[in-house]
Amino acid sequence: MTDLPPGEPAPPLAPPRSAGQSALAGVFDLDAQLTPAEREWQQRARRFAHDRILPTIDDDYENAYFRRELVAELGAAGFLGMHLEGYGCAGASAVAYGAVCLELEAADSSWRTFVSVQGSLAMTAIALFGSDEQKRDWLPRMATGEVIGCFALTEPDGGSDPAAMHTRAVRDGGDWVITGTKRWIGLASIAGVAVVWAQTDDGVRGFLVPTETPGFVATPIEGKLAMRASIQCDIRLDAVRVPDSLRLPGAVGLRGPFACLNEARFGIIWGAMGSARTCLEAALDRSVSRHVFGKSIGAFQLTQDKLASMLLEYQKGVLLALHIGRQADAGGLDVTQLSVGKLNNVREAIAIAGAARSILGGDGITNAFPVMRHLANLEAVRTYEGTDEIHALVIGRALTGESAFH
C-alpha cells in the first residue's frame, strides 16, 4: 500500500463510534432507502430478532433445538405469508418482505428459512394454485402459525432436476394414491400439511397432504452441521391416499413449484445479506477492541483492506436486493434476476463471513462470535433453492439463448 500523492489532503477521520451505535453507521444505511411502511416492517423484524431469537440462538444451534413457541409469535407479528393478499395475510410489499428476511437472518438463517418455507413455499403454493375452498381452509390458520406447512419437492436422487422426480400420484376413483420419497424437506415433522409434488399421467401436479394421513412419515435428518436450529426431514409416502379435493387445481407442470421457489429465492437474496451484516459487524467490533503490537488490529492496513472489501460487497448485495425488490413491486421483475441475486449474494455473504473469521483469528472458530454459525448456515443456503451451478446456468441461458441443462 502507498501513501497519498504529494499535496493531496488526507480524508477526514471518522468520529469514534459511541456505545450501542451500529458498526456500519455513517458508512451505509439501508434504513434511509426504505419507505416509512417498509421501515416499520424492518424495525419490527429487527426487534423480534433481537428480543426473541438472539438470546437463545447459540444454545439452540448447539443443541439442535427448534424453538417452536416462536411460530405463533411470528404469526402475531404478521411475518407469515406477509407478501400475500387476503386470508389473514398482510399484503406487504416485496421490499418490506425482503427487509424482514434480512433482519431475521441477521440473527440466524433458521428463522428466515422458517418464514420462507411457511410463506414463500407452502402458503404461496396454496395462494397461487389452490381452490377458493383450499385458500379459506388453510391460509388463515397458516398466517397465524396455528398450522405449519412444508413443501415436498426435492428427492434423494436429485434436487436440481425436479422433472425427473420419482414420486407418483395415481388416480383411484375420487382419490389419488401417492407413493415416493422426499428429502431435505423443511418443517415436515412438525407440519400439519405438506404440499407434495408428484408425477401423474398428466405431468407434475401438487397435492395438499394432511400429515396425519396414513402412510405419511417424516423423519428429521440428524448429523447436520448447519441449520441446526431448524428442522429438515426425509419423507416417505407409502400409498398415501388423498381426495381429489386436495389436489391444487391451478398447478400444472413444473411452473407450479418453480413459481414458489422464485418467491423463496427472493427472500434468500435479502436474508444472506443479514448474515453478512452480522459477520461484518462482529469483525469490525473486534478490530477496534483487540490490540496487538501496541495498537488495535483495525489500525493495520491489511485489516482495513479486508473490512473495506467486506463493506463493498455487503453494500452492493443490499442494493442489488433492493433493486430486485423494487422491480418486483413494480411488476417488472425478470426471474433471471432472481438467479443473479441468489448467486451473487450468497456467494459474497460466504466470502464476507470467511474474511470476518480471519479478522477474529483463532477466537473466530468459537461460539463467542456468531461468524462460524452463520458461515455454516450459509453453506446450506448456498445449496437449497438452486445451487450456484444451477443459477449460473440460468444466467448463461439468458445470455446465450442456449440451455446447458440437457
Description:
Helix 3 crosses helix 6 (255-289), helix 4 (109-129) runs antiparallel to helix 6 and helix 8 runs antiparallel to helix 9. This protein is an alpha+beta fold. It has three domains: 30-144, Butyryl-Coa Dehydrogenase, subunit A, domain 1; 149-246, Butyryl-CoA Dehydrogenase, subunit A, domain 2, CATH 2.40.110.10; 255-400, Butyryl-CoA Dehydrogenase, subunit A, domain 3 (Up-down Bundle), CATH 1.20.140.10. The chain is globular. The protein has helices at 36-63, 70-76, 94-107, 109-129, 132-144, 255-289, 301-330, 336-360, 371-383, 388-400; strands at residues 85-86, 89-90, 149-152, 168-172, 175-186, 193-200, 203-210, 216-220, 232-243, 291-292, 295-296. The strands form four sheets. Strands 4-5-9-8 form a four-stranded antiparallel sheet, covered by helices on one side. The longest helix is centred in the C-terminal third of the chain and has 35 residues, at 255-289. Mean pLDDT is 92; it is low at 1-21. It contains ten helices and eleven strands.
CATH class value of the largest domain: Mainly Alpha
**Averaged pLDDT, please?**
92
Strand percentage, roughly? 15-25%
Q: Which residue ranges are poorly predicted, with pLDDT under 50 across at least 5 consecutive positions?
A: 1-21
CATH homologous superfamily label of the largest domain? Butyryl-CoA Dehydrogenase, subunit A, domain 3
The CATH architecture term of the largest domain is: Up-down Bundle
* Helix and strand sequence: HHEEHHHEEEEEEEHEEHHHH
What is the domain total for the residues? 3
CATH topology term of the largest domain: Butyryl-CoA Dehydrogenase, subunit A, domain 3
Describe the strand arrangement of the main beta sheet, using strand numbers: 4-5-9-8
Catalytic activity: glutaryl-CoA + oxidized [electron-transfer flavoprotein] + 2 H(+) = (2E)-butenoyl-CoA + reduced [electron-transfer flavoprotein] + CO2
Domain Acyl-CoA oxidase/dehydrogenase middle: 150-240
Pathway: Amino-acid metabolism; tryptophan metabolism; Amino-acid metabolism; lysine degradation
Organism: Herbiconiux daphne
